């Protein structure tokens, strides 16, 4: 049996993109429903991004979901790049005329968005199985999904695909209507979360002959560390002891010697990928966030680029419903892609600067060393890095 409801915007995916858009639209009186494939606890079990740019934090505040972020998140005015046994600081604040980033985990941010949705009585449907999109190139698209033995239908004006890289939305667009661009990297990041004081109060990105490493944090008592590993490695091969030994090898000696280690509370390997689909719209389906593009995590752009998509789409939908002005919807894909590609460029550059590529020649290695030497010899090069890291304007 099929039961049907009607809404203005049907959102697929209850990750940060879908929840943020849902909350922002609701606050502007635009009715919407979020369909999430998994249970809430499952979504909240994923440990992902940690660095938010100013524009993303502003969106959280506008969504009335920024209170805890402002209380518990940490403002960072700089970070370190370690190489050749030492480390140099990138003074984001000085290089950008006062801009900073917020260190606040995606898990906490997603929890805040769920709570904000609950407070307003937002419609977020979990465990929505077998979501399908129908008539997306028409003026009356719809969604169907299963809950238990029942099939349900949602009729809407627009569908927004916020269902991540493996979601159903992008796959529902006829192949000949889109172009995809992709680069797969020959390594992954092994990440560990541990209830230990962070080794550094600011992030350290390390270039080392054994491979990249990153020291990040979630709070003064919770550390998040990553090391570059071959794609063939599995989590089981990496005991906590082996992980921390390897991490310390890749850091300057004085940093390694002050590191406090402890049992991991999460450990996972993420492959690195760059991916973009063009355009980000087909008919009345709009794609946003990881459903439309992926970056390697090195420049902390993934979640932040999802944020700019949501910003453009939110304003476009508000213009449509408040004044019948469709210029924002018409230009959504090209506006979003302009910023998406800048995030791709920066992420690729940071990844190339800091990782060991298995088939790099001695020539490639010298170029990488020269790239680092140039960076730290030029205020303009540093300013370019800082400008991208804190986030380009929306
Ligand atoms: P997602 O967070 O992927 O959310 C999509 C949601 O859609 C999920 O909840 C999923 O369950 C749901 N869904 C999927 N398919 C369906 C379906 N068929 N029907 C209904 N719902 C569906 N970025 C950084 O900036 N820094 C990092 O350190 C970092 N680390 C990462 C580590 C990993 C392992 C991954 C995968 C990503 C990482 N990212 C990082 C990227 C960042 O987490 C993403 O850019 C961000 O999660 C994008 O949010 P999203 O809402 O667009 O997609
Ligand atoms: C984190 C992840 C990143 O990819 C990054 O560039 C900075 C921080 C993190 O998980 O804390």
Key traits:
six-stranded mixed β-sheet, binds 3,4-dihydroxybenzoic acid, binds flavin-adenine dinucleotide, 29% strand, 394 residues, alpha/beta, eight-stranded mixed β-sheet, 12 helices
Describe the model.
- The model has no long low-confidence stretch (mean pLDDT 97).
- This protein is an alpha/beta fold and 394 residues long.
- The strands form 4 sheets. An 8-stranded mixed β-sheet has the order 7-6-15-16-17-14-18-21, sandwiched between helices. Strands 9-3-2-13-20-19 form a 6-stranded mixed β-sheet, with helices on one face.
- The chain has helices spanning 16-27, 40-44, 54-62, 67-72, 92-95, 106-119, 240-249, 253-257, 302-323, 327-354, 362-375, 379-390; strands at 2-6, 9-12, 32-35, 51-52, 74-76, 78-83, 86-91, 101-103, 123-125, 129-134, 142-147, 150-155, 158-161, 179-194, 204-206, 213-219, 222-230, 264-278, 281-282, 285-287, 293-294.
- Flavin-adenine dinucleotide (FAD) is lined by residues 12-18, 35-38, 43, 48-50, 106, 128, 131, 162-164, 167-168, 270, 289-290, 297, 300-303, 306.
How far apart the termini lie comes to 45 Å
Multimerization state: single chain
- Bound small molecules, which ones? flavin-adenine dinucleotide, 3,4-dihydroxybenzoic acid
Helix-strand makeup class: alpha/beta
Helix content: 25-40%
- Beta fraction of the residues? 25-35%
Low-confidence stretches: none
Shape: globular
Q: Which radius of gyration do the C-alpha atoms yield? A: 21 Å
Task: Write down the overall mean pLDDT.
Answer: 97
- Total strands: the figure is 21
């Amino acid at each position: 049996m099929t039961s049907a409801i009607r809404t203005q915007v049907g959102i697929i995916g209850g990750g940060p993109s879908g929840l943020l858009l849902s909350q922002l639209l609701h606050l502007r009186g635009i009715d919407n429903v979020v369909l999430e494939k998994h249970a809430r606890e499952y979504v909240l079990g994923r440990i992902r991004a940690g660095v938010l740019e100013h524009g993303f934090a502003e969106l959280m505040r506008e969504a009335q979901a920024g209170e805890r972020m402002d209380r518990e998140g940490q403002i960072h005015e700089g970070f370190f790049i370690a190489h050749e046994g030492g480390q140099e600081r990138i003074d984001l604040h000085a290089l950008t005329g006062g801009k900073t980033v917020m260190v606040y985990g995606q898990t906490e941010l997603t929890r805040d968005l769920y709570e904000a949705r609950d407070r307003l009585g937002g419609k977020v449907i979990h465990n929505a199985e077998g979501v399908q999109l129908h008539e997306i190139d028409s003026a009356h698209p719809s969604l169907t999904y299963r809950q238990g033995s029942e099939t349900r239908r949602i009729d809407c004006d627009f569908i927004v695909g916020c269902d991540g890289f493996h979601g159903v939305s992008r796959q529902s667009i006829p192949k000949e209507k889109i172009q995809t661009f992709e680069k797969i990297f020959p390594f992954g990041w092994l990440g560990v979360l541990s209830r230990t004081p962070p080794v550094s109060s600011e992030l350290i990105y390390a270039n080392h002959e054994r491979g990249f490493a990153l020291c990040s944090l979630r709070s003064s008592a919770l550390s998040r560390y990553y090391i570059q590993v071959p794609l063939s490695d599995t989590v089981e091969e990496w005991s906590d002891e082996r992980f921390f030994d390897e991490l310390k090898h890749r850091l300057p000696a004085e940093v390694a010697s002050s590191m406090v280690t402890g049992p991991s509370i999460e450990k996972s390997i993420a492959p690195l990928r760059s991916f973009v689909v063009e355009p980000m719209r087909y008919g009345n389906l709009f794609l946003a966030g990881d459903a439309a593009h992926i970056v390697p995590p090195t420049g902390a752009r993934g979640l932040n680029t999802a944020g700019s998509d949501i910003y453009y789409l939110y304003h476009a939908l508000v213009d449509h419903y408040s004044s019948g002005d469709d210029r924002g919807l018409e230009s959504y894909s090209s506006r979003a892609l302009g910023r998406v590609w800048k995030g791709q460029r920066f992420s690729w550059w940071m990844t190339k600067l800091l990782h060991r590529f298995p088939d790099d020649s001695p020539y490639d290695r010298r170029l990488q060393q020269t790239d680092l030497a140039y960076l730290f010899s030029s205020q303009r090069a540093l300013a370019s890095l800082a400008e991208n890291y804190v986030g380009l304007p929306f």
